[in-house]
Amino acid sequence: MRQEALEIQNQSAKQPLVIWVIFFATIISFMGLGLVDPILPAIAKQLNATPSQVSLLFSSYNLITGVAMLITGVVSSRVGVKWTLLSGILLIIVFSALAGSSDAISQIVGFRGGWGLGNSLFIATALSAIVGLSIGGTAKAIILYEAAIGLGISVGPLLGGELGSISWRGPFYGVSVLMVIAFFALLIKMPQVPKPKVKSSVLDPIKALKYPGLLRLGLTAFFYNIGFFTLMAYSPFVMNLDEHGLGYVFLGWGLCLAITSVFVAPKIQARFGTVKSMCAMLILFALTLLSMGIWTDHAIVVIIAVVVAGLFLGTNNTLITTAVMQVAPVERATASAAYSFVRFIGGAIGPWLANKLAETYSPHVPFVTGAIFVLLAMLVVAFGRKHLAHVDTASH
User: Fold this and answer.
1) What is the mean pLDDT of residues 180-203?
2) pTM for the full model?
3) Which of 100, 117, 227, 322 is geometrically suited to a Cys-Cys bond with 173, CB 3.0 to 4.6 A?
4) Which of 15, 77, 20, 34 is nearest to 337 (CA)?
């Protein structure tokens, strides 16, 4: 029996080559998110834009990503997983290059929306593909997916800082080139995955939200992402660092996010359960944002808080993504699309709201407001625990 258990464990650790190809492409895809952070102040300065105008780079990206989540299942069920992934990557290649070639903030904002369309086709399909094709169960597959996200987000700012120190256009072109590599890797290595027998509808993700557990997780992520993108889109303007400095700060943040998403989240979930663990992480993140709001004028406090926040964000990301895959009796791709639709709307509101509050009131207000929204996310989880209790049973 012991030998059989060891054989099963070893087999689970060996993933098919296609999983590692998708893993690589996911890293490159999420590099596009953090790659922009170090150049936000530079774009504002060189294009004579306000921070709230620059924050629309995140807002348009997230808004289109969220809305387009409604069609990801429709596309993938008709053209297949492989060509949905490739179509998404191709759109990212084109629109990131166009953004780098722009001369006005409005043009970049528009092209980032096109980039978001490609991102939606890729990330929703990548998650369901990794979960469906991997060996070792849903939880391990999601940890692998979150690890790819963490690596992409952590390496992205470092590359963005290096390229951004040459020109703010550099990171946009950098994403385009890296996604070309990912495109050909998937084209060559990924086999055709059988299409589902039942074609998906645009309304499927909306209908999936009738399940209380999935709706609560979506609302949790909606509020939580307002705080998340307050940190992403607003903190670069108060740290008083150049492109290199911002790149290193967000590298530290991303590494903390990657490490906790892979190694810490599963242990915390196993010991305390999903609901208690998520509530704890959301409270700790809210307190981190609150400290940034109190000591906004002290750059060193903001820098340390940004890095520390990665510990809580990485853990919570894995917890909530794992829960989404198991909370409702719908296909994984549909659950992912429904959840992502709601959470990315929060990601669209957060960046603009944070910078607008700073321009209208004071630099402290955005962080305090972000903390309040994260606490709201915690309350949604805490009061909906009866709809989420079965997630831990499914995980085991």
Assistant:
1) 77
2) 0.85
3) 100
4) 77
- Residue in this structure with the two tokens 């510990």, named with its chain if needed: 311
Residue from 239, 323, 252 nearest 281 by CA: 323
If phi > 0 it is left, if psi is from -120 to 50 it is alpha, else beta; for residue 240 that is left
Q: In this structure, how many other beta carbons lie within 10 angstroms of the beta carbon of residue 300?
A: 9
- Alpha-carbon gap, residue 41 to 43, rounded angstroms: 6
- Please, are residues 263 and 255 in contact by the beta-carbon 8 Å criterion? no
Give ∠ CA 303-250-271 in degrees, rounded to 5. Answer: 90
Q: How far is CA 345 from CA 127, 128, 224, 229, 371, in A?
A: 19, 21, 11, 11, 18
Helix axes 81-100 and 105-133, enclosed angle (nearest 10): 160
3 state SS of 298 = coil
How is residue 313 written in tokens? 């964000």
Report how far residue 250's alpha carbon sits from residue 307's, in angstroms, rounded to the nearest whole number: 7
Question: What does the alpha-carbon distance between residue 12 and residue 197 come to, in Å, rounded to a whole number?
Answer: 28
Residues in contact with 117: Cβ distance below 8 Å, sequence separation at least 6, in sequence order: 64, 65, 68, 91, 95
Residue type, 342: V
Rounded CA separation 361/339 (Å): 33
d(CA 62, CA 40): 16
For 120, 145, 396, the CA distances from 95, given in Å and listed in that order, are 13, 24, 42
Q: The tokens of 20 are what?
A: 């590692």
Report the alpha-carbon distance of residue 372 to residue 367 in Å, rounded.
Answer: 9
Query: Which residue has better confidence, 396 or 55?
Result: 55
Q: At what angle do helices 17-35 and 81-100 cross, to 10 degrees?
A: 30
The 10s digit of each residue's pLDDT in 221-267 is 999 999 999 999 999 999 989 888 998 998 899 889 888 988 898 89
**Closest-CA residue to 382 (of 280, 284, 282, 275):** 275
CA distance 136 to 372: 38
Q: Is the pLDDT of residue 333 over 80?
A: no
CA–CA separation, 142 vs 137, rounded Å?
A: 9
